[in-house]
From TrEMBL:
Cross-referenced PANTHER family: SUCCINATE--HYDROXYMETHYLGLUTARATE COA-TRANSFERASE
GO molecular function terms attached to this record: succinyl-CoA:(R)-benzylsuccinate CoA-transferase activity
Species annotation: Variovorax paradoxus
Domain of life: Bacteria
Matches recorded under SUPFAM superfamilies: CoA-transferase family III (CaiB/BaiF)
Region (Disordered): 358-381
Protein name: Succinyl-CoA:(R)-benzylsuccinate CoA-transferase subunit BbsF
EC number: 2.8.3.15
Annotated InterPro entries: CoA-transferase_III_domain, CoA-Trfase_fam_III, CoA-Trfase_III_dom3_sf, CoA-Trfase_III_dom_1_sf
C-alpha cells in the first residue's frame, strides 16, 4: 500500500518519551510523515499496563498513542544503551523526551551536553513544571495539574465540588503544544541552520486553558465559579431538557436567540427586555432556562436538534462515546483509522489538501534504526 508524502516526510524523530504528552506529540508528527523511532526502556512504556482492555498483553491506552512509530528498547542507565542512543541522535532531527528533570543530565546525555555535538537537533522536553522555580523539577501528572491550575475548580455542577475533567486534557494539550514548539523550531532552523531546546510544561499548558475564566478574573477580580454545562459568559449555552433526551444549545448572538425562540413557540421572548441582549440573557439565565425548558418539554430532543440546526441555531444531541465514534459524519471526516492487525484509533484532526496524514505503522512495529532515505520516500509516496 502506498501513501501520499506527508508534510514532515524526511524529518527523523527520536521519541524516547513515555506515558502521554510526549508520545502524543510523536504520534502527530508521525501521522504527518515524519520517520518516528520510539525507544522504550527494557520493560516498555508504563502505559502498556494501563488497562483493561488489553490485546496480546498490551493496553489500549498504549495503542492509542503510538501508531506511526517503530519501536526498540534500550537501557540508558548503561553505557551500552547511552552509546546506542548517541548513534540514533546523530541521525535525528528531533528528540522528544519527558524524563524527570536532571535524569538525563546525570547520565551525561542531557541537552547541554549534546547540543554542541548535534547543533541542528531540536530537543523537545515535556515536563511537569519546568526545570526551576518554586515547583521546578517536580513530577507532573494530569489530574494533579488540573487541580493546581484551577481547572477542577471551574469544572462540575454549580452545587457540586471541584471535578476532574473526564479526559487527560492537560496531558493532551501539552502534547499539542510540544508539536507546535517542534514545528516552530524546525521552521526557524531553516533560517539559522541551528536547532534549539523546546519545552512544553503541563503546568503552563493547564494555565493556558483557563479562557475565559482567567480573562474574566483579570478584568474584574471576581473568582470564577462552577456553572455545570452552562457557559460562564453567554446564555443559553447549556444542556437543556426536552420531552425526551437533553440537547445542547449554543446561542452566541441575538439572531440565533430569536431563531431559537421561534422554533420552540416563544417568538415574543426575544423581545423581552430581560433577554434582549447577550449580556442581559447571561445575567438573567436562571429564569430564562426555566422558560426555555418549559417550552422544550413538548419536543422530541433529536427532532428539535434537526429543526434548530436547519434554522441556524447551533445545537447537538448529547451522545455517548460509542455513538460519537459510530456517527456517519465521523466516518465522513475519516476520524476513525483502521490498520492491519485489527488496530482502530482516532484519525488526524488536521487536514492538509496536498500532504494529508497517513497511517503507515501500527503500534508495536519493530525497528532498530531510522528508515533509509529511499525507504522513507517510498513509504510516503
Amino acid at each position: 500500500m502506498t501513501h501520499p508524502q506527508g508534510a514532515l516526510a524526511g524529518i527523523r524523530v527520536l521519541d524516547i518519551s513515555r506515558i502521554l504528552g510526549g508520545p502524543y506529540c510523536g504520534q502527530i508528527l508521525g501521522d504527518h510523515g515524519a520517520d518516528v523511532l520510539k525507544v522504550e526502556p527494557p520493560q516498555g512504556d508504563d502505559t502498556r499496563t494501563w488497562g483493561p482492555p488489553f490485546k496480546d498483553g498490551v493496553a489500549s491506552y498504549y495503542h492509542g498513542l503510538n501508531r506511526n512509530k517503530r519501536v526498540q528498547h534500550l537501557d540508558f542507565s548503561t553505557e551500552e544503551g547511552r552509546e546506542a542512543l548517541l548513534a540514533l541522535v546523530a541521525e535525528a532531527d528531533v528528540l522528544i523526551e519527558n524524563f524527570k528533570t536532571g535524569t538525563m543530565e546525570r547520565w551525561g546525555i542531557g541537552y547541554e551536553a549534546l547540543s554542541a555535538r548535534f547543533p541542528r537537533l531540536v530537543w523537545c522536553r515535556v515536563s511537569g513544571f519546568g526545570a526551576d522555580g518554586p515547583l521546578g523539577a517536580l513530577p507532573g501528572y494530569d489530574a494533579a495539574v488540573q487541580a493546581m491550575t484551577g481547572i477542577m475548580s471551574i469544572n462540575g455542577e454549580a452545587d457540586g465540588g471541584p471535578l476532574r475533567v473526564g479526559l487527560p486534557v492537560v496531558d493532551m494539550v501539552t502534547g499539542l503544544n510540544a508539536v507546535i514548539g517542534v514545528l516552530l523550531a524546525l521552521q526557524e532552523r531553516q533560517r539559522s541552520g541551528r536547532g534549539q531546546f523546546v519545552e512544553a510544561a503541563l503546568y503552563d499548558s493547564g494555565l493556558s486553558l483557563l479562557h475565559p475564566h482567567a480573562a474574566n478574573w483579570f478584568m474584574d477580580g471576581t473568582a470564577p465559579r462552577r456553572t455545570g454545562n452552562a457557559h460562564p459568559n453567554i446564555y443559553p449555552y447549556d444542556a437543556l431538557a426536552t420531552g425526551t433526551d437533553p440537547v445542547f444549545v449554543a446561542v452566541g448572538n441575538d439572531r440565533q436567540f430569536a431563531s431559537l425562540c421561534r422554533c420552540i413557540g416563544l417568538p415574543g421572548l426575544a423581545d423581552d427586555p430581560l433577554y434582549r441582549t447577550a449580556g442581559a440573557r447571561s445575567v438573567h439565565r436562571a429564569g430564562l432556562k426555566q422558560q426555555l425548558e418549559a417550552a422544550m418539554a413538548a419536543f422530541d430532543g433529536r427532532a428539535l436538534v434537526e429543526q434548530l440546526m436547519a434554522a441556524g441555531v447551533p445545537a447537538a444531541p448529547v451522545l455517548p462515546v460509542d455513538a460519537a465514534l459510530q456517527h456517519p459524519h465521523t466516518a465522513h471526516r475519516e476520524m476513525v483509522v483502521e490498520m492491519e492487525g485489527g488496530y482502530r484509533g482516532i484519525g488526524a484532526p488536521v487536514k492538509l489538501s496536498r500532504t494529508p496524514a497517513s497511517y503507515r505503522h501500527a503500534p508495536l512495529t519493530p525497528g532498530e534504526r531510522f528508515l533509509p532515505e529511499s525507504a522513507t520516500s517510498a513509504s510516503a509516496s
